[in-house]
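Pentatricopeptide repeat-containing protein, Panicum miliaceum. Tokens?
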Amino acid sequence: MAALLPSSFPFPHASFPNAKPHQLATPAATRPESPNAAPAPNPASARLRRLIAREDLAGAARLVERSASRDGEAPDVYLCTKLIRNLCRRGRTSDAARVLRAAEGSGSLVDVFAYNTLVAGYCRYGHLDAARRLIASMPVAPDAYTFFCRGGMVERAIQVLKQMAEHGCTANTTLCNIVINSICKQGRVDDAFKFLNNMGSYGCNPDTISYTTVLKGLCRAERWDDAKDLLKEMVRKNCPPNEVTFNTFICILCQKGLIEQAIMLIEQMSEHRCTVGVVTYNALVNGFCVQGHIDSALELFRSMPCKPNTITYTTLLTGLCNTERLDAAAELIAEMLRRDCPPNAVTFNVLVSFFCQKGFLEEAIELVEQMMEHGCTPNLITYNTLLDGITKDCSSEDALELLQGLVSKGVSPDVITFSSIIGVLSKEDRVEDAIQMFHVMQDIGMRPKAVVYNKILLGLCKRCEIDNAIDFFAYMVSNGCMPNESTYIILIEGLAHGGLLKEAQDLLNELCSRGVVSKNLIEEWH
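Tokens:
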């Protein structure tokens, strides 16, 4: 496959160096600053930016609070807002409130967006009284979004719409569209349709975005006839569908495998003076690939009247990898380079995933190294994919080196990252290290799921440390993590492996009678 590509193409070649995961941690070359770059930020802002990037939110909050008592070191309000948002996402609304007050005291010109962020955080966790108090104390004029957040729930938001005029904030179509989108996200398409028809009572009329949002909800619910009727209604009410409306409909049809209906809809686009562009063709290409019709996808790709983009190529590349047509995939990527359409991180991740799935770990590592050489930064998906490949080979040292590498590059590990590391440590009988990593995961604010607990339980049971396994199981339950069938199977097999066959059989029968594990498991044991 690689022989078909230019030598400069970032793809594994015939021979591979003995690359190790820690080599991926080598920082990319520092890019020179533009001569027209903006002035350097003040020291407080520079430090705050670094702390936020490292997700040291506690340190960032302390920095803002210290800045409140110093002249000339007011941190940038954008960074303060970003910190408030990150704190709210983790449920730390009290800390976020302190940051906001400290920003006010430091002399930063706190704008409505900072207040909106905290109001939204309060509402997300049901602290509606705190949200209302904050709105009442705002030194800047609240906007429509503030009032929407104040509601906390869709029903409350609709009530707030009626109150907005009393506060000198006129309802507009944009705000109503936010409400429609929220209703649709809850799967309440009929309520969204009703709200759409009642928008006039709030002093505004639906626009194309309003109709397109409801249309998307109808399509997600697979109510195709209702979606088609809504298109006709748009025309009747002098709000004709645009390219976004049609592409929304077409994309979902293709995702559901209804390609013929999608093609019929495309034929209607010209009637409404809508251009059939690359977004439309990408939807069709994806539809063919999802259905496994890769040849049809390639045929459509070759006949496209518009220039394909990276999404087009990446979609086709995914289809070719899924069907293991590697030579065609190599030709396609070479074509990308010839047509000045360089691969992006998503494109590379498709290839990295393919190589890892096939066990070609060295090739995957080589690809990531060359990915960086070509100015494409690996992301968390890239590293997690590599970790999955490494842990399948039971290489805990390489996995830990890769973890250190991704952290040094400013990439924050997630639950998947830790799950892979904990799994391979347990497999290699490094259960103490796995438990230590488990606690690191907890210390940075992550809540391990059952799959993570199960990996440690499995390691303990393989050691025949049944008492420790039972203690860890109790710890799992006390932390509010619901055991699943795999959890109980691990415990049952652990009891049996430890010579406690009667206890294992009794536990199995008890769990089966409660419907916790399937009856097929009992049959396997007899």
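The first helix runs from residue 43 to 53.
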